[in-house]
Design a protein that fits this description.
Elements: H1 2-38, H2 42-50, E1 57-60, H3 66-74, E2 81-84, H4 86-96, H5 98-105, H6 112-122
Antiparallel strand pairs: 1-2
Helix pairs in contact: 4-5, 4-6
Length: 125
């Protein structure tokens, strides 16, 4: 009986630590998002929106890096082409920032959090 109580106490403590760590990470992510958005001045924002293409861009998915193709397949995208609209680019810039978006467009693989943030942008027209 004593061993069960000790086991339950240890499991409860580990659960509390896991929840606290999850809350801490969530708060830090919110702080990073807030800091990133506060660094964008209206002048920089106007510059970034003027550089958007006016026509949709069609990307052959086989030309993407292997890890980028894997991410698309993970989220259920199986088409041979990916049409990127100016609205999608704006959405992606808002989701991960212009600098990080440029890195991803050059072949860098988005991490799990960025992938989740970018996923809604695939549905915009």
């Amino acid at each position: 009986m004593k061993s069960i109580k000790i086991y339950l106490i240890i499991v409860s403590c580990l659960l509390i630590v896991a929840i606290a760590l999850g809350i801490y990470i969530w708060i830090m992510l919110q702080k990073i998002n807030t800091d990133t958005h506060s660094l964008v001045s209206p002048q920089n924002e106007a510059q970034s929106t003027t550089s958007h293409p006016k026509e949709p861009i069609v990307v052959q998915t086989h030309s993407l890096s292997e890890s980028q193709q894997k991410i698309l397949k993970t989220f259920g995208y199986t088409s041979d082409t990916l049409t990127i609209t100016p609205t999608m680019i704006t959405c992606a810039e808002n989701a991960v920032g212009k600098t990080r978006l440029d890195e991803i467009l050059k072949g860098s693989t988005p991490n799990a959090i960025e992938s989740v943030k970018l996923l809604p942008c695939l549905g915009t027209k």
